[in-house]
Design goal:
Rossmann fold; 3 domains; 7-stranded parallel sheet; 29 helices; 38% helix
Length: 730
């Protein structure tokens, strides 16, 4: 009567867990020597598993052990991430117990390696039927023995001689996920490929129901054990309103329609829905918004999008962009009436009545599933609430910046700390979304300046927790620490990027023709964003650095002009008015100085080997996408934080400065960065070898592309966002 134990590991989610538990109860009834431990996992934001185990009647022979939560939202990724925790749990259970085997859910077969480490036999518990198990083995044989592409069966009229079925099986009834092709199908197939390594497969079926399939696998390895039907009958005698209604119906007179936990009928599944996006004024946030909507539209044919546009006085770029946009019946623009406010936040506030009217018009005859607000437009959550629509945020910057905002909000409103104390401070802050302490000198100046503008911004950001979710222009591989630090918290974040406007990559112009004549990776590109400019003194230091570096260069140089209390950026009529005397003649043939230039077209060119940048988030993602390393010269907004992240956390950029700040209002003297400092960074940047910053940026660029492919981290986040949007509106 020596006792022994089996360890069961079901896949995440309630359905496989309940089937597993009912199977263990049958086995426990068969042998008093047996005890069972069930290791449980659950997806982020899924509380059903914990609720089930908490309410389970205690038993000394059946225990649950919850594995630590993980942030992965895709089931197979979550299972893969648990391997260390599974190893630890088994190691703990084996002390003082006789472990007779590890019983793995079909999706958890990767853990057979852990069972082997401890010398324990591994079995599979298959919650579906013997016919499905036999079909899986047949498809594995086609794929790996006969080297047949299973994607050939997609939309095929072929019939297959599957040994476990008495009739030919039409290709159109094969599981779509296995014949879709791509990384997700490969992931599933590589899991199923491990079935032959099992000592046996416990199957939720019975011989009388699937005799043909069961007999076809008799005498083969692994042996199958048809132990079912395994059912959770706990709800049979439950009293509720539905049962009371059924009590009043004649015997066998009711047809019951039900399509499983995730089932929906076809009409409901194909019902169209619309999201309304509201970007902040200006072209940069609008283009990022439009590129994000294009990704989402590609993911679901039911979705349509309306973008409500705003623009500052005398700004014609927004109208020009929307006028030239290729028409699409699923993506439309609606311009809000112009306002006279020149300060962006004031202009946004003045649009609340127009936003209300626009949403009211759009909702007539359409199924509005949500309002997606730019970070500076969060005040419109009140309008969304008036109509009963969920509100989401689209954050055009990175997850680290979002996490920093939440940290500063906590300091300001929970701990009642004056953020202006960090101005010119040498303090370092333990921001949870960064692995290193964050110097106060890289915090966004506008948030720690104090005064009414800082308060205005902070009161906007304070509304982030009211969002149903935040769509972020980043990807997990680039900001894994920040994204993981926010996993399981509200609001949920969806890292769907990199979101880039690559329309100018192949544009032909004079600059491209000049680059065509330069050697590969020989040109350093200097560009500082839509609003980037420098004083005449700083321009001369940059020019001297370029000349002394002897590097080929392309410099986008633009002029700061005061308009009232604000500074705007315009083109120089003559670069000679700001550059050192003779500079253009001395560098002729080596470098070019130009005005505005299409940045993506330059970064995509083979001749460009380095990028001196203000570290705006769009520029950062473009640098990564094209594998061009940066030297950091931040100017404003969150750019100092981005520079810190690239240089200190990732080692993916060379530093000119992390904490340089321009002053748009002319209220403070701006430091001048010397030519020697700039020259040194350019030399390091342009001589970087593959193992340094250049290699790291190129590798991250490959990961960014993979994130957007089918099965990639951002692709999954896009799909999850759409599914969550639909789920919230029913």
């Amino acid at each position: 009567m020596e006792k022994f134990e089996l360890i069961f590991i079901p896949s995440p989610g309630l359905s496989h867990l309940t089937a597993t538990v009912e199977a263990t109860k049958l086995l426990l009834d068969r042998d008093p020597r047996l005890s069972v431990t069930v290791l449980t996992m659950q997806l982020p934001n899924d509380t059903a598993v914990d609720a089930y185990t908490a309410n389970f009647s205690a038993s000394p022979r059946l225990t649950f052990s919850a594995l630590p939560p993980q942030s992965k939202a895709f089931m197979l990724d979550l299972i893969d991430s648990q391997i260390t925790n599974v190893r630890h749990a088994i190691d703990q259970r084996r002390r003082g117990r006789r472990i007779a085997g590890i019983v793995l859910d079909i999706f958890c077969l990767k853990f057979v390696d852990v069972a082997r480490e401890f010398g324990f036999p591994a079995y599979c518990f298959f919650t579906s039927g013997a016919g499905t198990l036999g079909l899986f083995q047949y498809l594995l044989s086609l794929k790996f023995d006969e080297e047949k592409e299973l994607s050939e069966f997609k939309n095929s009229g072929e019939e297959l001689p599957v040994p476990c079925f008495s009739l030919p099986v039409p290709a159109k009834v094969l599981p779509a996920v296995l014949i879709a092709g791509g990384p997700i199908a490969d992931h599933f197939l590589n899991i199923l490929r491990r079935i032959p390594e099992m000592e046996g497969v416990v199957v939720n079926t019975f011989h009388e129901f699937e005799s043909y399939a069961i007999d076809s696998m008799a005498g083969k390895n692994p042996r199958i054990y048809p132990v079912g039907p395994i059912l959770d009958l706990a709800g049979v005698s439950r009293e509720d309103d539905v049962k009371r209604w059924l009590d009043d119906q004649p015997e066998k007179s009711v047809v019951f329609l039900c399509f499983g936990t995730n089932g929906k009928n076809h009409r409901r599944k194909m019902e169209k829905f619309e999201l309304i996006f509201i970007p902040s004024p200006g072209l940069s946030h609008l283009t990022a918004t439009v590129e994000a909507t294009k990704l989402l539209l590609d993911r679901d044919p039911r979705l349509s999008v309306t973008v409500l546009t705003m623009q500052l006085p005398n700004d014609t770029a927004v109208d020009a962009y929307t006028a030239n946009f290729s028409a699409s019946p699923r993506l439309t623009f609606s311009a809000l009436p112009p306002q006279s406010k020149a300060f962006m936040l004031d202009l946004i506030d003045s649009q609340i009545t127009n936003v209300r009217h626009a949403i009211d018009q759009r909702r007539r005859g359409r199924r509005i599933a949500g309002i997606v607000l730019d970070i500076f437009c969060l005040k419109f959550v009140d309008v969304a609430r008036e109509f009963g629509f969920p509100a989401y945020c689209f954050f055009t910057s990175g997850a680290g910046t979002l996490g920093l905002f939440q940290y500063l909000l906590s300091l300001k409103f929970d701990e009642e700390k004056e953020l202006s104390e960090f101005k010119n401070s040498g303090e370092e802050l333990p921001v949870p979304c960064f692995s290193l302490p964050v110097p106060a000198k890289v915090l966004p100046a506008v948030l720690i300046a104090g005064g009414p503008i800082a308060d205005h911004f902070l009161n906007i950001l304070r509304r982030i927790p009211e969002m149903e979710g935040v769509v972020v222009n980043t990807f997990h591989e680039f900001e894994s620490y920040a994204i993981d630090s926010m996993a399981g918290k509200n609001p949920r974040i969806y890292p769907v990027g990199p979101i880039l406007d690559l329309a100018g990559v192949s544009r032909e112009d004079d600059v491209k023709r000049w680059l065509d004549d330069q050697p590969e990776k020989s040109v350093v590109f200097l560009c500082f964003g839509t609003n980037g400019s420098f004083s005449g003194e700083q321009v001369k230091e940059i020019a001297l650095a370029l000349e002394n570096s002897e590097c080929r260069f392309l410099w986008s140089l633009r002029k700061p002009v005061s308009e009232g209390v604000e500074k705007v950026v315009v083109e120089y009529e003559d670069f000679g008015e700001v550059l050192p005397e003779g500079f253009l003649e001395r560098t002729k043939g080596v470098g070019r100085v130009v005005g505005w230039v299409g940045q993506v077209g330059v970064l995509a060119h083979r001749a460009v080997g380095g990028f001196v940048s203000h570290c705006g988030w769009n520029s950062t993602l473009e640098s990564v996408w094209f594998g061009v390393p940066m030297a950091t010269f931040p100017l404003y907004a969150e750019q100092q934080l981005n520079a810190f992240y690239l240089v200190k956390e990732l080692g993916m950029a060379e530093m000119i400065r992390l904490d340089y700040k321009t002053d748009f209002r002319g209220e403070e003297e701006v430091e001048i960065v010397g030519a020697g400092e700039i020259e040194g960074a350019i030399r390091r940047l342009m001589t970087a070898e593959g193992g340094g910053v250049r290699g790291k940026v190129e590798e991250m660029g490959r990961k960014g592309r993979a994130a957007l492919e089918i099965g990639g981290s951002s692709y999954k986040a896009q799909v999850e966002f759409i599914e969550d949007v639909i789920r919230k509106v029913g």
